[in-house]
Each structure stands twice: as C-alpha cells, then as structure tokens.
TrEMBL record:
The chain crosses the membrane at residues 21-39, 51-70, 77-95. Keywords: Membrane, Transmembrane, Transmembrane helix. This is Endonuclease/exonuclease/phosphatase domain-containing protein. GO terms for molecular function: catalytic activity. Gene3D superfamilies: Endonuclease/exonuclease/phosphatase. Residues 116-320 form the Endonuclease/exonuclease/phosphatase domain. It holds the Pfam family Exo_endo_phos. InterPro entries: Endo/exonu/phosph_ase_sf, Endo/exonuclease/phosphatase. The keyword Iron-sulfur does not apply.
Amino acid sequence: MTTETISSTPSPAGLPRRRRWITVLIWIMMVPFAAWAVLRATGWDAGFRWIQLAAFTPYVAAASVVALLLALSLRRWTAGVAGLVIMGAFAWAVLPRAFADPAPAPGGTALRVLASNLARGDADTKTIMDLVVRLKPDILTLQELTPEAAERLEKAGIRKALPHMVGEPTPGVWGSGVYARFPLRADQAALNYGNFRQSVAVAPERNLQIVSVHPCAPRFDYKAACWAQGLRALPRAGTGAEPYRILAGDFNATLDHAIMRELLATGYRDAADVTGQGLIPTWPQQGWEPVPGVALDHVFADARIAVRSFGVHRVPGTDHRSVFAELELPRAAR
C-alpha cells in the first residue's frame, strides 16, 4: 500500500496568476483615490454629491496612505509610484492647513471676532454669553438667529457687551445678525438666496465691513445652486481705500471646495488656515450626525488684516462649534 503526500504549496503555474490578481486589486484600490485627487485639483464643484463629498477630502487623503503602503509592501513598484503621486497631490492640498503662516504685524488695532450657528435658535444662551464675557469679542456674528433666540440674548445682557446690532432674526434656519462694540449700519448688499439672510454691517468709524455668512446647506440636490449663489454673492476682499472686510460664520463649505478657494484668491485669508488649525472640525458636534467632523465655520479676513490666533468652542444645543479669531487692523483703521 502506498501513500501520497499532498503539498499545500501552490504550483509554479498558479503563482503568476495569483500575482496578477493582487496587482489588479491594488490598482482597483488606487483608482478612487486618483479620481478624488484629480477632482480636487481641477476644482470641479458642479455635482451635488461631489459638493458633499469634497468636504471629507482630509480623511480620504489619510486613507490614501494605506493603498500606498500596501503597494510598496507587496513590491508593486509602478502602483507604488502612482500612490506616491496621489499622496503628494493630497498633501499639497491638505497639509498646509496644519502649519501656521502668520502675516507680519501691522501694529494696529486688535479686533476679536466670534461666530456661532445657533441651530434654529436652540443653542444654549448661557454658553454664548459666557463666551462673550470670557473672549470679549468686538464682533459677534450669529447664524440661524430666531426672534426667540434674539430675545433670550437681550434678556441675558448681550447689549451691555455688544450694544450695536444689525440683522434680521427670522424663524427657522434663515435668520442672521451682527453684534458689535462700536456703531454699525446695515449694508444693503444683495446676499439673500433661498430665504437665507447673510447680514452685512458696516462700521464707518473703522472703515470695516462685516458679513455674517450663511449660504444654503447643500443637503439636497435642489439646494446646490442656492449654496453656490450664496457663496458667490459674498464681497470680494477689499484693496486700497476700500473697507476692510471680514466674513465670519457658517460657510457650509471647506477649503476643499473650489468656490472657497476662489473667494480666498480675491485677497482673503482663513484665520484657521493661517494659524495652522485649518483641519480642526467645527461640524458636526459629537452625536449630531453620523459623519466625521469637517471645518464648515470660518473667519475670513482680507489680507490687509493680520491674524493673531484662532480657536473653536463647544456650545450645547447646536450642531456647530463656535469659531473665534483675534485679528489686528492696520494702524490707520483705529
């Protein structure tokens, strides 16, 4: 009686086929990352789904490292080179936000700006007032400011700290307002799209224009046009003798949206980006939405204004963190 030993070692003929399948699978992993990097680099914001997905680019950038390491560990050198190119494209787009790039100090007047989305007016009034007392903002921009929320703030003493106000409290998500320590007047700039109010205030004594930013949220296909219109309606950065401009609030967009980079290219700087905190998420707060956090709330200041610091603050009752920036106006702005 004879016995046969069955070897578990793959036959030489089967090895090339197995290697080919591994190579194919690695390339299949690379394709989505490559497509994402190309869309991000070309600035295509036309598709509704892409508008939503683009906000999560930093997470995709981090995940692309896995595909690269897999290709290199399995010695798929061509795929590895492709992975390096893809990772390089993501790094160029995302990493600068993690490193500070401060502007030279103009040696002028300090200006503190606080912005908060009140989530249909449901944000905790006490926390907002605590931030006002502790941070001592010169400007407070509020989004989703309802009549009830405005009344609660009035009763809590908002006008003692910030006596001047321009805005239009409105039921639901459409209201907006700007509070300040110095006199304001309303600017009639046409910034209202899809019933959203983006309050515009001018401080004549400081040659300053402030916008409480809140375009439509692109949650549905039919909101995409409203979202783009609201962002494109924002004033370009000022130059020369034009008013110094500050845009603060819930942009419903990140720096991975081309429309935001176009706005920055007119001469604005994102306070979070300048201070190396551009990847800190502001939405959603813990437990509000089952998605990773992204930076939707910003303070943009035109390039004539220096950025000193930036921070985010939790506020119960809202899905957005408040954002705070310490700025410095040129000396002539007082």
